[in-house]
């Protein structure tokens, strides 16, 4: 066993802000309070947030995660995930007289409202986002089929042909790369100068803040670890931001067990960056810090690039 004095020195840079955002906090609390109020089981349509550890803990408490609403029984409450759902989902829940609770992040709901407003004003809507992501499915599902056109890449933006270039608006998924999205928007604005833009940027504050924190630590790091699940869009974007900021060994990990220690030792790292996606619990980050301390003589530095104090209200049905 390696003794303490033989461990190589390591500076561990912790990005801040990191981990849970206000929308994730709210969604998890909604499930926990529903279990308190109604008892187990409580049904949740899709993963409440994209993190395996969070979903596993809530499952242990009595949450049952389902793919579609028809899997929910008539006599138990059902919760919609933080990513939002098409309008057809609450409509079906109401038709079946289900008790349902919408845990959609308010910043995603903002995009839904924006999309509906553009449609009411007679505009064709471009949604910048990733095909198949639950948030994109939910946003496109606010309107009739064909009303929202999806653009994923810069090439898509170059190829996009609107019905009327003077009757156009765009919205975006909330968890995208700030840099990639800006490039796509620039192309659309250059091609369609009259395109209607959001009153306030759709990419959420938490996504923006975590990406900026990663830029700061990645530039100083020999390796970067992002704690988050592979299903998490915002976590995957953090890895990409790390690579673009000059840290080529940027890895997404569920927890400390995913670290390849032999490969890491070969890199002879002096400084390692560590952060977490917006749906990753802080104890997982601390688990990585503890694991690092078993292999290195660790000096921890937290680099804070922004302060967050956002809190979102819990639905009245679950108010204590």
Describe the structure.
The chain has three domains: 4-20 and 205-304, Cobalt-precorrin-4 Transmethylase, domain 1 (3-Layer(aba) Sandwich), CATH 3.40.1010.20; 24-105, Rossmann fold; 106-191, 4-hydroxy-3-methylbut-2-enyl diphosphate reductase, catalytic domain (Cobalt-precorrin-4 Transmethylase, domain 1). Helices cover 38% and strands 18% of the residues. It contains eleven helices and twelve strands. Helix 8 runs parallel beside helix 9.
Write the layout of secondary structure elements.
Layout: E1 9-16, H1 22-38, E2 42-45, H2 52-61, E3 63-66, E4 78-80, H3 88-95, E5 100-102, H4 106-120, E6 124-128, H5 134-140, E7 148-151, H6 154-159, E8 168-172, H7 178-191, H8 205-218, E9 223-227, H9 233-244, E10 250-253, H10 261-266, E11 271-276, H11 282-295, E12 297-304
Parallel strand pairs: 1-11, 1-12, 2-3, 2-4, 4-5, 6-7, 6-8, 9-10, 9-11
Helix pairs in contact: 8-9
The CATH architecture name of the largest domain reads 3-Layer(aba) Sandwich
- The count of helical stretches stands at 11
Q: Main beta sheet: strand number and arrangement? A: 5 strands, parallel
CA-based shape: flat
Output mean pLDDT.
96
Q: Helix amount, in percent?
A: 25-40%
